[in-house]
Design goal:
The chain has 279 residues and is of the alpha/beta class. The chain contains 8 helices and 8 strands. Strands 1-2-8-7-6-3-4-5 form an 8-stranded mixed sheet, sandwiched between helices.
Length: 279
């Protein structure tokens, strides 16, 4: 079951459910024992790890968390400049409230904010990322597997133009690294009896999209994994979900707004979406 929405800037997106995409980061999908525990949990900050945090969706999500005043932020980046990281830090610090939105009481300090570099195509680097984060943060309560890449192959028009090595590399970046990081973070969530894992998939996983077959296949692989894992940990206080945005401006994948890549992909995405249903 899917629905169309426009909940992020200039985005049109498809969801696996009718909830706005960002609500999966804060809410349980069922009112069960874990939900009741959530209602009675003490007002202490939780740790959030966001991969690809300096991109458009990652940065917007980090700022959204900061506005609640309830989360410390571990933000992953690959090659973002110091200037870009400093700008995001300033935005997050400006967004953090002075008073707790839940109680109205003063917040004595700003949320903790740390940046961590890792190459998500390298599983050793992913393991090092997790090790570095848990040295600073007591535990990771929320994991947003947001990092992704088209590896420089966008608007593909022929299967022959994408080498098989690019398919394999796409899986490592878009699928394998997210699964590995979840494997590393999940035991602590299960031990705590509370956790949230969200995968940033793509409408390409449902329609084929406009980036290319390597990207679509790597994102579709997430959906089967999410279905399996969600059922596996549902009784342990951990929820697992995926969101499937369409084209998002302000991301590296789209290139410069109004540029050739953005125009070509936007045109083919419209054809893909309009052509997905029955005539």
């Amino acid at each position: 079951m899917t629905s169309k929405c426009s909940s992020y800037q200039k985005v049109s997106c498809f969801h696996l459910t009718y909830k706005p995409w960002y609500l999966w980061l804060f809410q349980s999908h069922r009112r069960d024992a874990s939900f009741e525990r959530l209602l009675t949990m003490p007002p202490q900050r939780k740790g959030v790890l966001i991969t690809g945090a300096t991109g458009g969706i990652g940065a917007a999500t980090a700022i959204a968390f900061a506005k609640t005043g309830q989360y410390d932020l571990a933000l992953h980046y690959n090659n973002a400049s110091q200037e870009k990281r400093d700008a995001l830090r300033s935005q997050i610090e400006a967004a953090a409230p002075t008073f707790d939105p839940r109680t109205g009481t003063p917040i004595p300090s700003k949320p903790r904010l740390e940046f961590y570099q890792a190459d998500m195509s390298d599983f050793a680097s992913v393991r090092a990322l997790h090790a570095a984060v848990i040295q600073t943060f007591p535990h990771i309560d929320v994991l947003f597997n947001n990092a992704g890449s088209a590896l420089g192959h966008q608007g593909v028009t022929s299967l022959a133009s994408v080498p098989i090595d690019i398919f394999e590399a796409s899986w490592r970046v878009n699928t394998g690294s997210a699964i590995l990081l979840t494997q590393l973070c999940l035991p602590a969530m299960e031990a705590e009896g509370w956790g949230r894992v969200v995968f940033d998939s793509s409408v390409a996983a449902l329609t084929g999209g406009s980036v290319g077959p390597h990207y679509a296949s790597s994102k579709s692989g997430l959906h089967g994994f999410v279905h399996w894992l969600a059922g596996n940990v549902a009784g342990k206080g951990v929820t697992v979900n995926a969101v499937a945005p369409a084209l998002v401006t302000g991301t590296g994948m789209m290139g410069e707004e109004g540029g050739e890549v953005a125009r070509r992909m936007a045109g083919s995405e419209l054809i893909s979406v309009l052509g997905a249903g029955p005539a």
